[in-house]
Amino acid sequence: MNLFQRATNPWGQDVLTGIDWSLFWIALIAGGVFLILHLALRRRWIGDEKKAAKNAVDDPGLPQKIQRHSLASRLFHAVMGISMILLLITGFLPKVGLEFAWLEIHWITGLILTASIVFHIIHATFFQSLRTSRTSAT
């Protein structure tokens, strides 16, 4: 089984040109397992949050609305989501036979995604608090 497809470019270098479709099914199954585990654990987390909410004391000093995510966090996730969708489109459509100028779009989108991840690492490390977002009810 040849998992990776390689070719020689005009400069004589060996380059990766594609991967075997069997890896797609492995990724799809792994994604499904992740979703099932996430849903199962989410039910547990919601139960813990409901217990904590019952025991919480109402504080009259709290504002009516509490901001859960900063603008930077929301923009990062929007850019990351759009980048991932574009990478999937420009990665799979040429493989199924739809021809368009995908390479430049794919590379630029990859650079944007990489820059957004670097921004997220710096932002999360230096500008956000490191306290945990989940409290365990013990």
How is this structure best described in words?
The chain has 138 residues and is mainly alpha-helical. It has two domains: 1-53; 69-128. It contains three helices and two strands. A two-stranded antiparallel ribbon has the order 1-2. The protein is elongated, with a radius of gyration of 22 Å. Residues 132-138 have low confidence and may be disordered.
- How many domains? The number is 2
- Roughly what fraction of the amino acids lie in strands? 5-15%
In N-to-C order, the SSE pattern is EEHHH
Q: How many β-strands, per DSSP?
A: 2
Describe this structure in a few short sentences.
The chain contains 3 helices and 2 strands, in the order E-E-H-H-H. The protein is mainly alpha-helical and 138 residues long.
Task: Give me some keywords for this one.
mainly alpha, 2 domains, two-stranded antiparallel sheet, 59% helix
